[in-house]
Amino acid sequence: MPVSQSVSQSLTRPPRRYDYLDDGAAIYVDSFATIRAESRLDHLPPDAEKVAVRMVHGTGQTDLTEDLVIHPRLVAAARGALESGAPILADANMVASGVTRARLPRGNDVVCLLRDERVPALARDFGTTRSAAAFSLLADRLEGSVVAIGNAPTALFHLLEMLLDGAPWPAAIIGCPVGFIGAAESKDALAYFHDDHGIDVPFLTVRGRRGGSAMTASALNALAREQE
Fold it and tell me: What SS3 state is found at 70?
């Protein structure tokens, strides 16, 4: 007897005591319909609507769209890079783990070097966090990549400083670090990077303190494939 069949025969569903939708496909459809009904989307680039909707879906925050700042070329740049096989470079393992591999168009590498054995010493030498130092180890993979920072403001600041110091440009930056110290400031630095320094890398960010791995991974999953 197949294992799945034996398990189903040995288990019974508990008596239903609550009124709730329990059809997975219907929940999915209704969720996106609710998001579109409750979120403002008209101020975003038209091709970024599905990205914003998926980010709301990943966070449950329908007002998130009010704080999104999305470069007009972000979707085309990031999706084009992924379709050409570019890697995703993440600041946190939770961001990397949140990427739905089946959505990646070319089986793209998803790289996070936070656990690399060289990182602790490099962070000490630099006098910064491990998340920031890890990006220096990714310098040779930066060009044309899609960078995803969802945890550490120091990683985003460090990346921008690398670019100012002549590092290769990624194709796109998803910069949504979360927190109370430096998060809002690092995302403002990204939003004004072109105005302040003339370096025009397509980006997505969310103003203020909120952000996080789930939000960043949701954006990546939407960029990897247009289909919701």
Answer: strand
Residues of the chain with pLDDT under 50: none
What pLDDT score does 64 carry? Answer: 97
pTM (two decimals)? 0.92
Cα–Cα distance, 188 to 207 (Å, whole number): 7
Number of H helices, E strands in the chain: 11, 6
Catalytic annotation, pick one of 57, 71, 158, 194: 57
The pair of structure tokens assigned to 217 is 């991974």
Active site residue 197: no
Q: Which domain holds residue 30?
A: 3-224
CATH of the domain at 196: 3.40.50.10230
Q: How many folded domains does the chain comprise?
A: 1
